[in-house]
Design goal:
It contains 14 helices and 26 strands. With 491 residues, the chain is an alpha+beta fold. The protein binds one RNA strand of 78 nucleotides through helix 1, strand 13, strand 16 and helix 10.
Length: 491
Amino acid sequence: MSKEITSRQQDYSQWYNDLILKGGLADYSAVRGCMVIKPYGYALWENMRDQLDKMFKETGHQNAYFPLFIPKSFLSKEAAHVQGFAKECAVVTHYRLMNDPNGGGIIVDPDAKLEEELIIRPTSETIIWNTYKTWIQSYRDLPLLINQWANVVRWEMRTRLFLRTAEFLWQEGHTAHATAQEAIDETLLMLNIYAEFAEEWMAMPVIKGVKSINERFAGAEDTYCIEALMQDGKALQAGTSHFLGQNFAKAFDVKFSDKQNKLDYVWATSWGVSTRLIGALVMAHSDDEGLVLPPKLAPIQVVIIPIYKGDEQKNLIDEKVKVLMITFKALGIKVKYDDNDNNRPGWKFAEYEMKGVPIRIAIGARDIEKNVVEVARRDTKEKMTVSIDGLAEAMHVLLNDIQTNIYSRAKKYRDENISKADTWDEFKKVLDGPGGFISAHWDGTAETEDKIKELSKATIRCIPLSNTQEEGKCILTGNPSRERVLFARAY
RNA sequence: CGGGGCGUAGCGUAGCCCGGUUAUCGCGCCACAUUUGGGAUGUGGAGGUCGCAAGUUCGAAUCUUGCCGCCCCGACCA
């Protein structure tokens, strides 16, 4: 009983932290707001990254890499952009250290002050558009479809493991197009890729929508997003895709000649998802026993645990498992045989439950006699006896089944937690009760949105893309409204 | 930045109010043995700038002052 997890009901935040720390995904570090991603957590990120990368490449994007440092003057070229990020920038002012002449150890050399300060990128639009200026002259250079996998820094006041860290890993796509329509199509294409990834790989249902002006990315014309619902009834933005119009092209003077030799500014998009997705994944499926990972992303899909008395039995099991492992791997199943004898089976059972491994197989001498194994699935905690013949195929099917099951479970929860509210009282009642998404009328003004946020801490998560038009009255002001939007308290 | 909590071995803790042997206990770690179908047991062992600094005192984990760090809640945000 060395690793107790706080229950969700007792303290949801603590539960979340326990899962991350005790599940071996990450650790706190010596640096405020920055975490260490441990091998198991990083393996999960690699799986997510690899799949997304594949999807980006399938849609014609290429990877590139731009500098970590952004000259201060670049950031201020797009007015809205700098306003959005100025308050959370880490700034490099010097380039050298020296021994303190007063014996105080190492100090910053005052003579080594940079002429122009460098900002550690909070996002890379500016450095990238400064570069695109030199890459784009003609419509023949378009579209330019680039993605970058990188780390970025945002000096957040309050941080949380994976959900909001001062430094985080992400990908940022930055594309340039000849027409507005093409850029809008790209924005939506990437939004759909994010949604597909969230639903099919993370098994996490999301709502696609567009942000209100208040919630829009700094420098964008339109911000699209996917919004997911966590088990505590709070929403989480899982990915964003921005139509940037010609804002950055104008700020960085990026023009191209069209077929008629007419000069025009190019149209831009940017889109990103981050290690925050790991936080989303954790909160979407896990329970009080630990993580529950979707098979498609789990670093370990099947763990095999031997149960034996003495070397003779152990050897027998080893032989059997060796053959099984080959059949598992042939089907592309990520399997681990844990025959470490430091820990007994019971300990391992608990440990792999904590780590969210989708399937656990226990195999002992008496199983081999009967040509069976014990299979336990993490999502339902169900145990069953399965024949060794065709085991890999059966597990392959079961992994798919688990993937589908946790998706349906999450979707059922999500759907049950979308409520309609037509009055302020109803609205507050849901928020202070179960939470979740609230579909409500809003008069469309930023002032009202701010007021609602101030009064209820709920924000407009998005205006769903497939929204039905419907006459109604704003829940706060009673002013006329043409459609409902989704509110929630959010991470 | 405001509110709350915390800092003692890798982790979790007792001791602090009321200063006084060698700083408590559990987990983990190392060795050996017995074990292995839901977090094993025994025996032996290693491991400590009590967050940092100054002060009070014969004597400080304990009292005083200052500082630092972390976590949780809120404002900011992906």
